[in-house]
Amino acid sequence: MIRNNIHILVVDDEEDLCEILKFNLESEGFQVDTVNSAEEAMQTRLDKYQLFLLDVMMKGMSGYRLADEIRKRRKLDAPIFFITAKNTENDKLTGFSVGADDFITKPFSIKEVVARIKAVVRRSAVAVDQPGEPTSVSIAGIELNLDKKRLTVDSVKEDLTPIEFQILQLLMKNPGRIFGREQFLDSIWRDVNVTDRTVDVHITRIRKKLGKYGKYLVTRKGYGYCFEIE
User: Fold this and answer.
1) Which of 151, 123, 110 is nearest to 25 (CA)?
2) Can you spell out the DSSP letters for 45-83?
3) Which of 24, 33, 56, 216 lies 20 to 30 A from 208 at CA?
4) For the purposes of burial, counting CB atoms within 10 Å of the CB of 135, is it exposed (0-12), middle (13-18) or buried (19 or more)?
5) HSE on the CB side for 85, CA within 13 Å?
6) Quick check: pTM over 0.85?
7) Distance between CA 210 and CA 142 in Å, rounded?
8) What domains are there in the chain, each with its CATH number?
9) DSSP one-letter code for 137
C-alpha cells in the first residue's frame, strides 16, 4: 500500500464507477474525491489534487475541455488520466494534445488502473538528489530545474506536464544525442500502449513552450530527436 498524500479527483458521470474507483484507490492509500460532471469539478479547488481521472464523454462539458481548463487556464501540471470508451488513435492524440498522461479504456481492470496510477506517481515524484548531482540544466536562455520540475525560458516560467518534463530532461541532459521514438516510448511510457505519433505531439508542444529556443529541439529525419545548439 502506498502511504502518501496523493489526492486524486475522479470525474465521471457513472456514479457506480466513481464509487468503485474511490473504494479501490483508497484501499491503496490514496485520498480520493469524486464528482459526476466537469462543471461540478470546476467548482472545486483543482489545485489541491495531485492526479486527475477524467471521463471523456459526459453530459455538458467533456473531459477534453476540462483537461484543457486544468492545463491552460489553471496552469496545473498534475498527471491526467482519461477514462474512456473511445480508443482510436485520433482520440488518444486529441487527449495527449490537451495534456493527458495516459488513457484507460472502458471496460477496464481495476488492478490495471491502480498499477498505472502507481507507475505515474513514481515517475512524477520528486527524486532525492545524490551528492554532487546537478539540480538544474541550463542551455542558452532555457533552465530546467530538476528538483522543482520547473522550466523557465528567459526567466519566464513555462508549465510542463510530467511527460513533457521527462522528455525535455532526457534531451537537455544529453545534448547532441539522438533519441528515437521507440527510446522515448520505452523509457517514459513503458507499458502504456501509445503510438509513435504521440511522441511527435509532445515534441511539438515542448517546442512551442521553448519559444525562440524551440529550434534547438531538432528533428533528425529517419532517426529521431535531439537537443542541439547551432
Assistant:
1) 110
2) -GGG-SEEEEESS-SSS-HHHHHHIIIIIS---S-EEEE
3) 56
4) exposed
5) 5
6) no
7) 8
8) 7-124 (3.40.50.2300), 136-227 (1.10.10.10)
9) E
